Amino acid sequence: MTMRVAVIGGGMAGLSAAYTLLQVKGDVPLHVTLFEADERAGGKVKTTPFAGVPVDEGPDAFITRQPWAMELSRKLGLADEFVVPDTGKTHLWTRGRLRSLPTGLVQGVPTDAVAVAKSGILSLPGLLRAGLDLVLPAQALPDDPTVAEVIGSRFGREMVERLVEPLVGGIFAGRASHLSLAMTAPQLAQAARQQRSLLYSLLQLRKQAQPATASGPAFLSFRQGLGYLPERLFDAMKGELDVRLNTRVQAVTRLENGNYRVSCVDGSEVIVDGVIVAVPAWVAKEVVRALTPAVAAELAQIAYASVIVATLGYRPEAVPGPLQGNGFLVPRVDKRLMTACTWMSSKWEHLRRATDLVIVRCSVGRYLDERGWHISDKALVARLQRELEASMGVREWPVEVRVSRWERAFPQYDAGHRARVVRIERLLNETPGVLLAGAAYHGAGVPACVRDGEQAALKLWQHLSSKQGAETAPSR
Ligand SMILES: Cc1cc2nc3c(=O)[nH]c(=O)nc-3n(C[C@H](O)[C@H](O)[C@H](O)COP(=O)(O)OP(=O)(O)OC[C@H]3O[C@@H](n4cnc5c(N)ncnc54)[C@H](O)[C@@H]3O)c2cc1C
Fold first, then answer.
1. Can you tell me the ipTM of this complex?
2. Is residue 275 located within the same domain as residue 310?
């Protein structure tokens, strides 16, 4: 008998789940239906033409230290098409100008006092406070401390606000005072428990760290943009996958025989043996509410940050250059609209070659900062233009503009997140064959989403195999 499975959400997690199911099923008859609300698969991994060249609207690279996106790309035969970003400097726009990040950072925390002093990122009192780490007594930490609790208690608030939050929090568009250190910077969390002085622990970590060059490039993407990955993954499943684009799932409910009904907003429905729900937590909570209100209640507690990415193309004469580096981050404490600016033309050689325009991507918005959402695209670009003039001396208006709004895009891994995910997974034991996957749970980067989809698929496959075994086993 053919088993049936639904994958809800065609972002990286959902696509990777569907792909894994089709890989592991072998000759076993398994019908996989992918429901995607949008007209395309890929979710936040999206590349569209900008000034005639493919430029990402969401992520523009994946990290290789977590190997899962790289391995998936290899499986799909895409390894020859990787491109590597130029490893230029990153800057901070703070205390009145662009300043190079100090050398010797370990997961966003400095270990070289002279480099920090030279960077001018901290004031003199801020520097002196950071030095107190060497003499302060050990501090008791809660089970799952926040970034600010740990780094702030050792190095002081200024270090958190001006350096650590933009770097560690920036990846999640989050707040150091809320984010769990263990979830966002696990090495730091470990180091914080090792010795009285955090600096000493970090120096040890730094010694053990492999030089990036020894282990290959730290980040990868594709000449066609990162959207090439979901595109090719989707293509690889053509003919085997039952795809329902433009189909928004409303709810999953359980039938008396233990199967599940997947109901869509357009009135269509399917009955399946198992479901992988690979949508953001704020959507998943609605989808599973009737099935498991307890899980829905936990999902409702996962907060999200909305971000806007403005891609701007300038005539080369407008930008004082050459740009040396990958761009800059802006600490929240400086109260700018922009949270980061990536110098795409300087970061990606293939973009430099493809167009004379200087392309930059400005990010706006982070957790509890929604100012960009209350103004029009036009007003947003005008504000960004003023900030680019103040930071980089950009003199003219951009000749190409694209604004991508990502509402509730970044899940916040607040203190207590890991325990919440454990509770959710325990509660899901009550609904065998229903799994959650995606950025909201074990990691928000593309590689972590790929892996989460794979893991959900493997667990579901195990469940289906034992279910089928039980159904076909001879009765005694
Ligand atoms: C601006 C930006 C920059 C980023 N930069 C990086 C980076 O450089 N590197 C990196 O590794 N990560 C980065 N990330 C994070 C990463 O892109 C995401 O966390 C990841 O792609 C999320 O994948 P996902 O499958 O969990 O969710 P999504 O991509 O959100 O996919 C969920 C899918 O579900 C669909 N859906 C929603 N509701 C329903 C419904 N009811 N029924 C059916 N379908 C539904 C959506 O349309 C979507 O396609 C970035 C994210 C953003 C927004």
1. 0.99
2. no
For position 427, which CATH number holds?
A: 3.50.50.60
Mean pLDDT of the chain: 95
Convert the pLDDT of each residue in 291-314 to its tens digit.
Answer: 999 999 999 999 999 999 999 999
**Does the C-beta of 274 come closer than 6 Å to ligand 1?**
no
Cβ 12 under 6 angstroms from ligand 1: yes
Residue 169 banded pLDDT, cuts 50, 70, 90: confident
- Helix, strand or coil, per DSSP, at residue 155: helix
Ligand 1 centre to CA of 44 (Å) is 4
Ligand 1 site, residue 37, Cβ cutoff 6 A: yes
Q: Compute the distance between CA of residue 77 and CA of residue 258 in angstroms, rounded to an integer.
A: 39
What is the domain range of residue 401?
Answer: 304-411
Largest CA distance in the chain: 83
- Please tell me if the CB atom of residue 312 comes closer than 6 angstroms to any atom of ligand 1: no
Any ligand 1 atom below 6 A from CB of 10:
yes
Judgement on whether residues 128 and 208 belong to the same structural domain of the protein = yes
Six-digit token string for 389: 């003039």
pLDDT tens profile 47-106: 999 999 999 999 999 999 999 999 999 999 999 999 999 988 999 999 999 999 999 998
Distance CA 307, CA 147 (A): 21
Task: Give 102's Cβ-side CA count (13 Å radius).
Answer: 23
Cα separation, 91 vs 206, in Å, equals 21
Residue 52 domain-assigned? no
Q: Are residue 184 and residue 114 in the same domain, yes or no?
A: yes
C-alpha 100 to ligand 1 mean position (Å): 31
Last residue of a domain, which of 174, 193, 214? 214
Looking from the CA of residue 62, the nearest atom of ligand 1 is 11
Which residue carries 């053509």 as its tokens?
Answer: 238
